[in-house]
Specification:
It comes from Hanusia phi. One of its GO terms (molecular function) is monoacylglycerol lipase activity. This is AB hydrolase-1 domain-containing protein. This protein is α/β, with parallel strands linked by helices. The chain has one domain: Rossmann fold (3-Layer(aba) Sandwich), CATH 3.40.50. An 8-stranded mixed sheet has the order 1-2-4-3-5-6-7-8. Helix 2 packs across helix 3, helix 3 packs across helix 6 and helix 4 crosses helix 5. The longest helix is centred in the last third of the chain and has 22 residues. The model has no long low-confidence stretch (mean pLDDT 95).
C-alpha cells in the first residue's frame, strides 16, 4: 500500500488521495468512504490490486484532507466536484465506483456529473455499499446533528475543525436522505444504462427500510456474508471483495 502522496487543490484547501494497485493499468476503480472514516479503511484484494489502478481519496474534513470551517465545503455536491477533479487530472477514461454510506450519495452526484459533463470519461459500474437512501439510514448522522453546530473560527483547534466537519457533512447528508431524492436519482442512473450493484451486510438483514425500498424498486440486494455496515473492512471483507 502506498502512502497518501497525491492531492488536488480546491478553493478550501487540498483533498488528498492514495493510488494503489496496477498503476500501469488503464482500468480505474474509485472508493469513496463514509462519514468519519478515511482512505486507510479501503484494502482491496490482491487480485483486484493486480487487475486495476485504485484511486482512494480522503473526503474533505476527513483523514489528511483539509478541514475548512465553511458549510459549503461539505455538501455531497462539493465532495463530488473535488473527486471529479482528481479523476480528470488522472485522465481516467473508464471508472468503476464504490460508494460506502455517505460515499453513496457522493457517488450518485459524481456519476451524474460525469454523465452530464464528460465526453471522454464514463462510469462502468456503481457499487452502492449501504449508501444512504432514506431517513432511516441517518442513524449516526442524526445523532451528530443533535449535538448542535460547533462554534469554530479560522484559527480553531484541529479537534474543533474535525467536529465541525462531522456536523457539516451530516447536515447535508440528512437533508438529502430525508428529501426522498436519492432513490429516484439512483433509479435514473440505472435506467440510463449504468450497472448498479447494491450491497448490504448480512448482519443488517431486516434492519433498514431502505433495503426493502430498493428491492421494491427492482434493485437486487447482494447480502454480504458476515458483513456489517462497513463490510469492506469488517468480518465480511473477504466476501465483499
Amino acid at each position: 500500500m502506498s502512502s497518501l502522496q497525491h492531492h488536488v487543490s480546491t478553493k478550501f484547501g487540498n483533498m488528498y488521495y492514495r493510488k494503489l494497485g496496477n498503476l500501469a493499468s488503464g482500468d480505474h476503480a474509485l472508493f469513496i468512504h463514509g462519514l468519519g472514516s478515511d482512505s486507510s479503511t479501503c484494502s482491496p484484494s490482491q487480485k483486484l490490486l493486480d487487475k486495476m489502478q485504485w484511486i482512494i481519496p480522503d473526503l474533505v474534513g476527513h483523514g489528511m484532507s483539509c478541514k475548512p470551517v465553511e458549510l459549503e465545503a461539505y455538501t455531497m455536491q462539493s465532495q463530488a466536484s473535488f473527486i471529479h477533479k482528481i479523476v480528470s487530472e488522472q485522465q481516467v477514461k473508464d471508472l468503476f465506483v464504490i460508494g460506502h454510506s455517505l460515499g453513496g450519495p457522493v457517488a450518485i452526484k459524481l456519476c451524474e456529473k460525469i454523465n452530464r459533463e464528460e465526453k471522454n470519461m464514463s462510469v462502468r459500474c456503481l457499487v452502492y455499499e449501504e449508501g444512504n437512501i432514506n431517513e432511516d439510514d441517518c442513524f449516526g448522522s442524526k445523532k451528530i446533528l443533535d449535538k448542535g453546530c460547533p462554534l469554530v473560527g479560522p484559527d480553531c483547534e484541529p479537534r474543533e475543525a474535525t467536529d465541525f466537519a462531522m456536523y457539516a457533512s451530516s447536515k447535508d447528508l440528512v437533508e438529502m436522505s430525508c428529501s426522498g431524492e436519492l432513490l429516484p436519482r439512483l433509479k435514473a442512473l440505472r435506467d440510463g444504462g449504468l450497472p448498479i450493484m447494491v450491497m448490504y451486510g448480512e448482519k443488517n438483514y431486516g434492519r433498514f427500510s431502505s433495503a426493502a425500498l430498493l428491492e421494491h424498486n427492482g434493485f437486487k440486494i447482494q447480502w454480504v456474508a458476515r458483513g456489517g455496515h462497513s463490510m469492506h473492512k469488517d468480518e465480511g471483507s473477504p466476501a465483499f471483495w
